[in-house]
Each structure stands twice: as structure tokens, then as C-alpha cells.
Design brief:
The protein is mainly α and about 325 residues long. It is about 55% helix and about 5% strand. The strands form two sheets. The chain has a three-stranded parallel beta sheet. A two-stranded parallel sheet has the order 4-5. Helix 4 packs across helix 8 (about 135-145). The chain is elongated and about 85 Å long.
Length: about 325
């Protein structure tokens, strides 16, 4: 790895809680793939993070870890260009988390938008734990440990990153300049609704996973919600009100898109035909991703090797940061 130039360094992670779907791809991954071309990128599997909500069943997380890495590499993340690692294999995440928790005011954590939101939304799980409340502190340590300049996030994640910046600022005020305040590298908003018109999400089971076969995907697309005002084949439709059209924005070329818009608004093109075009384009898009995934499945040792190499690189960087942190805090005293 070249010398630490935090201006070129970016960091992001994902929780291993299930298969990656189109929403993940267009909402984050394709942006990561572009970033690795001219930045020094760190991408981590946030398996400790997943415990904040899955603490009763850690074994479940274990299955998802290699699957997530397969999805990443199949989607174009390159272990030669990026550091791909596992949070729980770099102990410094826990150490920094502990130290930052000493200075983080409770009020900040209780005000965190996700904390309130998930408390009310997620049923059947007790989320009134210390770990769930402290989620933003863990997130801050995940980021600050690598002292990156950039954190690729969607608009909805900006308040979280703000908390990381505030924790960094508070640390720097107490102990001296240690952490650069990371900045949001905004992911271009990609509208990728779920099959039922809600947000695409594992919990709604309205998603298309990157690893699904066309045999599984076809009935999902056929049954997909379109423009609810278009009741009969002879009614003109409105692509801007249609749940399917955003997929064409992502997967269909401009010329065909214009034809679809024309055909839909004049009722020359029915929803069934519109879905056929989408299915063909989806198959074209998924084929290379699934081909790369197949190669990884044939050689399971590859994932182990990728993570081992990534963990080592991440740890070397994390150790450097922690040496600075202990020094700045005055914890490195000889007795």
C-alpha cells in the first residue's frame, strides 16, 4: 500500500444480514467499484455491527459473511485494488470504540434518527441494549480507525456521518489533533424501488438478489406492481408514476427508454411487453456478475484468502492509528 494520503482514502462497510440485491448494487456497490479506480479504498464486512440486532443468533451472521464478500467481488470490487476485510478480525475496532465511548455524550446517541426509528419499527426484537444505543460509536470507530477523507454514503446516511465528525472533533478538542473529519462522498441517488412499490428491503421480501437465477426472477418481475392508474391494456400509462420504469432508468439504454415512454403514454405498449424488455436487460446485466460468482463458488479458498490478506492490511493501518491515539491521550506511560 502506498503511504497514507488520507485525501485519497475512502472507507465503507456493510452488515452481513442477507444476500445483496439490486438496491444495494445501484445504491452503493457500483459507486464503490468506480471509487476503487482512483482512491485507496477500504471495505469491511461489519459482522460486529450485525450483532446489534442479531445478537440472539450469531451463527446466522457467520453464514452471511462469505456470501457478502462473494457478492462484492462478483459485482466488481477488486481485492487487488481495495482492502476487503472483516471488522471482527481487527481488534483495534473494539479498542477505539471503547475509548470513544468514554467521551460520547448520551444525548447524542439518544437523538440519533435510526435509534428512534428502529426502536419503533422493528418488532419482536429487544433493541433496548447498550450495544444498539452505542451503534454510532462503533460506526465512528470503524471510520476513524483508518483516518479516511471520504465515506461514500447515500443522503439518508449523512446524519450518521455527522455524528462521526462530531465525535472526531470532540476527541481532537480534548487531546489534540488526531483524526481528520471524514467527509461524505455522496452516492448519486438511484431510485430502485421494491417489487411492491415500497423501498427494496430484505425485511419486506420485495427484492431481487444479485445471485438469483432468471427462473426465480421472472415470476417476480411478472407480478411486479406497475402504474396503478393503468387498469386496462388500452389505458395510457405514466412512466413517472410507474414502479417498473425506474428499473429501465438503471438497466435500459436511452433510445429504448424513449420508445418505452412513447409506447406507454400512448397505450401502444402493454405492461407485459415492457416487463419482457426489462427481463432481457436484467439477464444481460446479471450474467457477468453471476459468472464471476460461479468462479468464486468453485474455489471457496479464494474468499478465505481475500479476507486474510485484507485483514492483515487493515490491521497494519489500525495499529498505526491506535499508537497515535494512545500517545495523544497520554496512555502510553512507562511505570
Amino acid at each position: 500500500m502506498h503511504n497514507h494520503d488520507s485525501n485519497k482514502r475512502a472507507l465503507s462497510g456493510m452488515r452481513p444480514t442477507g444476500p445483496l440485491h439490486l438496491g444495494h448494487y445501484f445504491g452503493a456497490i457500483n459507486n464503490w467499484v468506480r471509487m476503487q479506480e482512483d482512491m485507496e479504498c477500504y471495505f469491511f464486512v461489519a459482522d460486529w455491527h450485525a450483532l446489534t440486532s442479531e445478537y440472539e443468533n450469531p451463527a446466522k451472521i457467520r453464514e452471511f459473511v462469505p456470501e457478502l464478500v462473494k457478492d462484492w467481488v462478483a459485482s466488481g470490487l477488486d481485492p487487488e485494488k481495495s482492502v476487503i476485510f472483516r471488522q471482527s478480525h481487527v481488534m483495534e475496532h473494539a479498542e477505539l470504540s471503547l475509548l470513544l465511548s468514554m467521551i460520547t455524550p448520551l444525548g447524542w446517541l439518544e437523538r440519533c434518527p435510526t435509534y428512534k426509528e428502529q426502536q419503533t419499527q422493528i418488532m419482536g426484537k429487544d433493541l433496548s441494549t447498550y450495544g444498539f444505543l452505542g451503534y454510532p460509536v462503533i460506526m465512528a470507530s470503524d471510520i476513524l480507525l483508518y483516518r479516511p477523507r471520504w465515506v461514500p454514503v447515500g443522503q439518508d446516511q449523512v446524519p450518521h456521518l455527522e455524528m462521526t465528525r462530531e465525535i472526531a472533533r470532540r476527541f481532537n478538542n480534548f487531546y489534540g489533533q488526531t483524526f481528520p473529519e471524514p467527509e461524505a462522498h455522496l452516492t448519486p441517488a438511484a431510485k430502485c424501488p421494491g417489487l411492491d412499490g415500497r423501498k427494496m428491503s430484505k425485511s419486506y421480501n420485495n427484492y431481487i438478489a444479485l445471485r438469483e437465477s432468471m427462473a426465480e426472477i421472472t415470476p417476480k418481475i411478472r407480478g411486479m406492481l406497475t402504474d396503478t392508474a393503468r387498469l386496462r391494456r388500452s389505458d395510457p400509462g405514466n412512466p413517472d408514476r410507474c414502479n417498473l420504469f425506474p428499473y429501465h432508468e438503471l438497466l435500459t439504454d436511452t433510445e429504448t427508454r424513449a420508445e418505452i415512454r412513447q409506447g406507454c403514454t400512448t397505450a401502444c405498449l402493454g405492461c407485459v411487453d415492457c416487463k419482457k424488455i426489462l427481463l432481457a436487460n436484467l439477464e444481460k446485466f446479471l450474467a457477468p456478475i453471476q459468472e464471476r460468482r460461479r468462479k468464486l463458488e468453485e474455489n471457496p479458498a479464494l474468499i478465505t484468502e481475500i479476507l486474510a490478506a485484507g485483514n492483515e492490511k487493515a490491521q497494519a493501518e489500525a495499529r498505526k492509528t491506535m499508537a497515535i491515539v494512545r500517545e495523544t491521550m497520554g496512555l502510553e506511560y512507562a511505570l
